[in-house]
Amino acid sequence: MAINVDDSFPFLVRKISKASGIVLNGYRDSYLRRRIDLRIKTLGLENYTMYLRFLENNPEEVEEAINAITVNVTEFMRDKTPFLFFREQILPEIMDKKKKAQSNMVRFWSAACSNGEEPYSIGICSKEVLPEDWSISIYATDIDINCLNKASKGVYSQEQLNNLDLAHIQKYFEPAGEAFKIKNIPKLLLRFKRHDLTSEPPISKFFDTVFCRNVMIYFNEKQKVKMLKDFYNSLSEGGYLIIGKSETLPPEIRELFIPVSIKEKVFKKA
Ligand SMILES: C[S@@+](CC[C@H](N)C(=O)[O-])C[C@H]1O[C@@H](n2cnc3c(N)ncnc32)[C@H](O)[C@@H]1O
Predict the structure, then answer these.
(1) Ligand 1 in contact with 74 (CB < 6 A)?
(2) Residue with the nearest Cα to atom 2 of ligand 1?
(3) What atom in ligand 1 is closest to the CA of residue 211?
(4) Is any atom of ligand 1 closer than 6 Å to the C-beta of 212?
């Protein structure tokens, strides 16, 4: 049954935003409506006014509303080829650059990391390519605390490891009951941090690569531009930006990034 559209939608969004502290005006309106409609249907309610009242009477529903808005689908080595490109093209180039600068420290940011599959994939690729004694620092951020808790535990079912080679599973995971836990990998430093891409400044500068995949699709153009400018400022000279396969850079910021691979959606700071 379709939900009855009424005038309460802006009030509803404001209510969720105020109660959760999460700024929602960077998201596409159609996306917010779709996600909230789904939640309303699940609750068996009929319209936005009813949901607004439901939220007022059930303050704990705010968290469910935010869960409905943030889609957490992810995978290890998602889409495979961008990670192959990262391993075979980007990491060797970063390594050469660092050697010239007499540095053995690399820094990556997985922005909107969901349950951790993306930052661990970055870690695995890096460990496979970079010399043993190099320090690899990965910031893994997301707006969703539940995701970050799961990510920091690093425990995944066998099914979730499907995209990884058996050799990598054996090398980087240890059995944990029915599941598998990421091993403590020397020289790999992962930091998990709550960070809202719509409202907070970039967490740091001098990243060698920023991964921001499959979240920009939910944002409106203004928000995309803001976020991509932040990434520009958080990248080191010639640093890389990797976005999702179905995402594109808005024309306004195209002069900030040089395309490296259109197919893999890899860009370089201009
Ligand atoms: C579909 S997942 C993408 C995960 C991973 N990057 C990938 O490509 O597999 C989108 C993630 O974006 C997060 N997210 C949504 N809005 C956000 C925001 N404003 N700031 C930071 N993360 C956000 C969600 O919580 C979710 O974990």
Answers:
(1) yes
(2) 72
(3) 6
(4) no
Binding site membership of 213 for ligand 1 (Cβ less than 6 Å): yes
Tokens of 172: 């980087």
pLDDT one-digit tens code per residue, 109-138:
999 999 999 999 999 999 999 999 999 999
pLDDT digits (tens, 9 = 90+) for 140-154: 999 998 999 999 999
* Nearest protein Cα to ligand 1, atom 8: 213
**Residue 22 Cα: closest atom of ligand 1:** 19
Q: Tell me: the pLDDT tens digits for 62-83?
A: 999 998 998 999 999 999 999 9
Name which of 138, 101, 82 is nearest 238 in CA terms: 101
Q: What is the CA radius of gyration of the chain?
A: 20
